[in-house]
């Protein structure tokens, strides 16, 4: 029998409701290139839930495309991005942003997050003009690549600073669902829309087969955006494929419910492991658990479960990473804890 | 009631078998980024059907991505593409190839097709080195943007010439299904693989929700290809989404059957219209019909059907374009012909 | 003894006055990167002579750099350039503009020149948005690559049309000197500045060792221009090198005098050849002469002079091209005519 | 009277011999685009002095162009550069390398220099393929941006490691003259050519008006290099301008003599300041002196000399930077020391 996987949050296909929506709408004839009724409906739901009735919204297939298109749309060739050195665009997208011509100014984050101080220092260190690229856009992720989240105060501070210094604020929301469903979170989708110039909401990790929604609340950035979507290869002939799925996610509370389930499964794992006396390498804010376990136990767990051994701690202990998702089976969580116990 | 659409071949979702395959496999846990069992299975089917057991195959979401990645992978910055001035990369992809740095040398095709003579003339006119970009890759489409197809002799001639002159041959197969299912066709998938260096097979227009398969038969072009897939934003976390669909298309003869249905519906429309005494603006080789009809008739047809008025012929006649697909309902074809008659 | 060359207008170094200015200023200590007193002085002269006291001016080493920087500064990634298919950026710069990401929409010119009709047709043919790149900048050269020149009426018409349709007008002035010194010319430097958004004045072909002056009269395009100069490698540490030379060219009437000499030498050749009964393949507007001569005569001339055989006319006649410059020796012109005669 | 400047090593024009060579050759007629007799002669001298008779050599106007062209020629789009975070391409070229599509992987150097350990760690940290760009080229400068130099052992170690790991080694020689003339130096030009794949020799800072010579000793990198020179705007019509100057520099020992003079003037300043009891902030290896002086003295010196105040040390002391060059007047060095004394 296959071992149950806690490797990542994209091991399964789509949430059944999402797949059923694809099934139910499959044979209607629709306009191509995102002008179908489902995409339009999805955009209406998103405008409502983000609280910006005038925002431009574009649905694309994946996160790297969302980043390429958003950043490429916003910058002139000499303008640079400020990003954490752990940022997804910095270390997990094969130089995709540089490939469209822009410099990344990397900074050391604080628990995966940028702060006003960090950004200000980057500005100070990149001011020898015109010999240095001009910092123009701040890239942040929420949740971050480390699973941490921004508070409303933290995001507001960054937002005000950016406005004051002529910087655009762009938020990568590959795991925005997990962030908003975090027990620590005090941000709503309307705050995200208000405090950033442009951001995207990840669907791939919250129950769709694929798809992310780029939301442009700063109207001055919306002009000709669709040219960039097309030029970078992201304008699907059957735009309905993403439209149907996002429409299903945001018609009701499904997006938030699925993200909450993932976080709850992580919390359950985290609590169970702690209660058995094992330490965590980091607090469990979203859907990732970093636990420190003895090697012998790890070896035993690997016989029934898949997960990453994150790093060695001592000669007989290591950190393992467990990732949960909308699809995580509570019985498997219990089985895992049961195996830890015995 | 909605008018039935003959506007394009991507108005519906996926063929039911394809969608059912997504449903049936939905909750299995799979490795991400195209290393799932369905993608691997699809690649095996494709290697078999293209007759190149060693070929590298990559599944991506759309045609523009397939073109960007394939061309970007093959060329150095100073190398240029020879393409018909009607080519998709020339006039329908928002400068996507130029956006990754390459010049398109455009030539006037013969019925949408390139010939050895045309390519040779392009070489002659672009030889003032190093002041001119170096022609290095020939881009062709089959079926072409005009719905015409290459014969085996035509493709073989181009292929030999390219080998002789150090040019790479790349075939855009957005409508390769329609071409191979054409009554005129004498090319098999194995010929395409043998005669080109790299080509792609379109799924979007033959029954998938999305997806195209890039096949690299020239092994020297396969090195590090996956970096390009990732860098251009085309490496889906849930690669299974395309893998499942292509696996279903090529497990059996489905791909060819669907393409044949589309062509047959077009042939039926074409024949019916001709038999009623109307002329065609072009022979019907694949799934597009160009018919010359009186304006009054066109106005009447538009009340029940959607199609493009392609161009004015005289003050009271115009060419209309009818596109059929795997999903075209034979009853609607008959209803259309019935309305032409009355 | 070396054969005298009529091959091009950059066979010699700099005009002696220009070289002497380099000598005279050589050992003063100056600020780097174009902020030296000579560059500033040159810019003052140019602002005066172009009649735009507020224009931004940048001195760069060569024409391709001037084109890359100017176009790259003006366009967003999805915006395209309309250019004659004979344009220098189209056929003599190795795809330099595509290499920075922009599509060239090429059109067939009329005697090397664009017209309102030609530009309007390009707009009509490139309007299927967002599937087509957006035409945004019109590129023209004066003199053109064929040696022809724009009249004031012609340039005014294009300028008005561009303003009306939201297009930027960019003029490549590699041979602007020759154009302004043409007997046909009714444009002044102030007209060029007024009618275009951005243009450059070539020094390389009018007596400098190297160097072209980019003049931005449309202030909205001047922001951050120097970043582009630096990013594309054109910000010389010793900016004085070009500053001194342009200062010398524009301190007095030298630029215009040198261009006039080149044209006069061409006129003399042209007239002499005509008077001996030979035909011209094109009227001599600037510093290029296209003469139709018998092959036997051509062979005789080649023993003492260098020039290009441009194209075959009949089995015993061909067009030759003679180019003159500020450095052309009148005695050699006379010797050439003498050899034609005998 | 103007204050004497120790601000940088490009305040003056060209060394008189270099300028005289331009004068002496000015009116000969030459082939354009670097195929003149002076450029060919310069390349011969350089092939001799670098000990690689088959190397390809290209003369370009400036350092950023040399870096853009060299790196762009060597890499495919997904390949990245490893560079010190203080590297010129990282912090002083406005994102020029990213602008042509390549990621810079930045590392913390040791005294401005890379080591095998540093490079190896960068490889380890950038191995998550294909999600990370592929490290392919190592960029170093000699002298470094901090004025330090590589020993033969240091460079040999890096070179061997690069060969072993499939990395190309590229050396930016903007101040290669200063490095080779350093008292610490044990590298010869032939070593540089042997140990790197491609490097360039700076002329701008050693007595030319402008110009750098790119030397490609690894023949596999030389194919089509001139296309890149042209495409990036660096192919001067009058290539002779740089050819004459490099020919003059390398005909005799002039290049090395000029570099030595600059270093000697720095040594004299350094020694004089030390002997008066002031400390240096860094040892003086090449032509830069970093001295720690009291603020009152600095204020007094600034009345007669120009230099940069590099950083504050205490409330009444600061580091100043003095840069010398081939043009530095020994009398001014003595006057400076005299003013320090009194």
TrEMBL record, chains A, B, C, D:
One of the Pfam families matching this protein, by short name: Beta_elim_lyase
Segments forming domain Aromatic amino acid beta-eliminating lyase/threonine aldolase: 18-293
UniProt xrefs under InterPro entries: ArAA_b-elim_lyase/Thr_aldolase, PyrdxlP-dep_Trfase, PyrdxlP-dep_Trfase_major, PyrdxlP-dep_Trfase_small
GO terms of molecular function: lyase activity
Transmembrane regions listed in the UniProt entry: none
Keyword annotations from UniProtKB, A to Z: Pyridoxal phosphate
Domain of life: Eukaryota
One Gene Ontology term from the biological process aspect of the record: amino acid metabolic process
Swiss-Prot/TrEMBL cofactor(s): pyridoxal 5'-phosphate
PANTHER family noted in UniProt: L-THREONINE ALDOLASE-RELATED (PTHR48097), LOW SPECIFICITY L-THREONINE ALDOLASE (PTHR48097:SF5)
Family: Belongs to the threonine aldolase family.
Name assigned to this protein: Aromatic amino acid beta-eliminating lyase/threonine aldolase domain-containing protein
Annotated source species: Oidiodendron maius (strain Zn)
């Amino acid at each position: 029998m296959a071992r149950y996987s806690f490797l990542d949050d994209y091991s399964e296909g789509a949430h059944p409701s999402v797949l059923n929506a694809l099934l139910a709408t499959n044979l209607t004839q629709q306009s191509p290139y995102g002008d179908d009724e489902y995409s339009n409906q999805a955009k209406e739901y998103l405008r409502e839930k983000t609280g910006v009735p005038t925002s431009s919204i574009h649905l694309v297939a994946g996160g790297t495309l969302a980043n390429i298109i958003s950043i490429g749309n916003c910058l002139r060739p000499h303008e640079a991005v400020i990003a954490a050195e752990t940022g997804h665009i910095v270390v997990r997208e094969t130089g995709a942003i540089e490939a469209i011509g822009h410099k990344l100014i990397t900074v050391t984050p604080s628990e995966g997050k940028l702060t006003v101080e960090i950004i200000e220092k980057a500005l100070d260190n990149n001011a020898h003009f015109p010999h240095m690229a001009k910092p123009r856009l701040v890239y942040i992720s929420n949740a971050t690549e480390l699973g941490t989240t921004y508070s409303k105060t933290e995001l507001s501070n960054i937002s005000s600073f950016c406005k004051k210094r002529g910087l655009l604020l762009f938020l990568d929301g590959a795991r925005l669902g997990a962030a908003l469903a975090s027990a620590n979170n005090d941000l709503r989708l309307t705050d995200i829309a208000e405090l950033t110039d442009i951001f995207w909401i990840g669907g791939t990790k919250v129950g769709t087969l694929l798809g992310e929604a780029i939301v442009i609340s700063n109207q001055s950035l919306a002009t000709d955006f669709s040219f960039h979507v097309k030029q970078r290869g992201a304008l699907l002939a059957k735009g309905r494929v993403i439209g149907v799925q996002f429409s299903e996610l945001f018609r009701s509370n499904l997006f938030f419910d699925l993200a909450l389930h993932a976080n709850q499964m992580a919390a359950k794992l985290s609590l169970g492991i702690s209660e058995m006396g094992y330490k965590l390498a980091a607090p469990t804010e979203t859907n990732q658990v970093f636990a420190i376990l003895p090697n012998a136990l790890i070896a035993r767990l690997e016989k029934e479960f898949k997960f990453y051994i994150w790093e060695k701690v001592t000669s007989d202990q290591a950190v393992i990473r467990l990732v949960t998702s909308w699809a995580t089976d509570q019985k498997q969580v219990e089985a895992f804890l049961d195996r830890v116990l015995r």
